[in-house]
Amino acid sequence: MKILRIVPLFRRDRGVEAYIPHLIGFTAEEELELLRKVDRAIPKKMWAFAEQSVPDGYTGVLVPQDGSKERIAALREAGLEIVGYNLKLEPGVRDLMESCAAVAVDRLYGQFNQFDALLRIYGSKNIKRIVLSVNTLADYDALWKEGFDYFIGDFYTKSVLGDGGIYEKLNPVKANQIALLAEVSTWHDDDTGQDLRKMAGIIERDVALTLSILKLSNSAAYGGRQQIGNVYDAIVRVGTANLKRWAISHLTGAVTDRETPEIARVALLRAKFMENLAKTDKWLAFFAGLASATGVMLGLPREEALNELNAPQPVRDALQYNGTLGAVYGAAEAYINGEDERLLAHAAALDPAEPLYLAYLDAELWVTDLLSQLDSDN
After folding, report:
1. Closest CA to 34 of 48, 18, 47
2. 239 pLDDT exceeds 70?
3. pLDDT value, residue 258
4. What do you get for the CA distance between the two ends of the chain, in Å?
5. What does the alpha-carbon distance between residue 342 and residue 332 come to, in Å, rounded to a whole number?
6. Of 9, 11, 148, 199, which one is least surrounded by beta carbons within 10 A?
7. What secondary structure, in 3-state letters, does 81-105 show?
C-alpha cells in the first residue's frame, strides 16, 4: 500500500517545530511529484522522509538503517542533514549515528533504553534526539524529563479528565458555536425544511458570528448586486450546505482561541478524510471525524461533548467503530496515526474511488486552506 502522511514534530514546549512528510512505497519520480503538492499543505517544513528522492526545499532527510551508502553520499552532496530513522542495535549503526544531525528512536522498540544509552555515548554533542510513538500524555511527560528534543506521536489528541472533576463551564462564545453546529448537524443536504429562522436567532446572539456571516454572504463567492444587511437573508444566500462548513470553521476558531493547536487540525483532517472515503452519508462521515476529537477540544468527556453537539446516533455508532461508517473512521484514524496493521484491517472494508493517499492529500490541502481563511478573517 502506498502511504503519504504529514506528521507534526513537537518541540519540548509542545509547540510544532515542523511538519514532516512521510512517503512510503513510491518511486523517486512519484515522491518528487507528491512533495511538490504536499508543500502547499505544510505550514512549516524542515525534514522529509523520502525513501528514494532528494527533495528540494528541505534541510534534511530521514534515512532508515538500511539506507545505501550511495544514497547517504548523495544527500551529503546535496547539503542535506541526515536524520537517522528506524535505527536498531545492529552492525553499522554507530557509523551512521555519528554522521547524523538527529536520530529518531521508536519508544516501542524492544531495545529502546539500550539504544538511547548508545546514542548518548556515541552521538555528537549537537545531535538532536527524537522519540517516536509518544501516544499518551504520560509518555510525553516521562520522555520530556529524559531530555528528548523532539516528539512524534498522537499524545496531543488525548485529554486527562479526572473522575468526578468539575469541568470549566463553557463561555458564551463557545456555547454559541456549539449551538450553531448542533443545529446544522441535524440537517441533510436533501432537506427542504431547515429552520433558518432558528439558525438566524443563534447567529444574532453573537456579534462576531453576525459580522462573519454578513461578510461571507457579501463576498465575491456569494455576493450579488445587492448588499445584504440582515442575518436571515445572508444565510439564505449562502445556502445550507455551505453553512455547515462555515459553522465548523467557527467552532474550530472558538475552541482554539485564534490559534491552531494540532488537535483542531487533526479533527478537521479526520473529518475531510472521512468525507473523501465515504461512499454515502458524506456529511455524517464529516461530522463523525470532527466529533471524534471534539471532547479534547472542548475539555469534556466524549459522551458529554457529543451530547453538547447533539450528535446523531450514526455518528455515535461510527465512533465505536460500528458499521460501514465505523470502518471509515477506523481507517482514517489509523492512517493519520501511522498504525499500518490496523489500517489494513479497516481498509479492507473500504472501496475508495481513489488511492488512500490522494484522499488524504486532498484533506490536508483543504484543512490548510480552511485554517488560512479562518486566520485571515480574524
Report:
1. 48
2. yes
3. 44
4. 40
5. 10
6. 11
7. EEEEECCCCCCCHHHHHHCCCEEEE
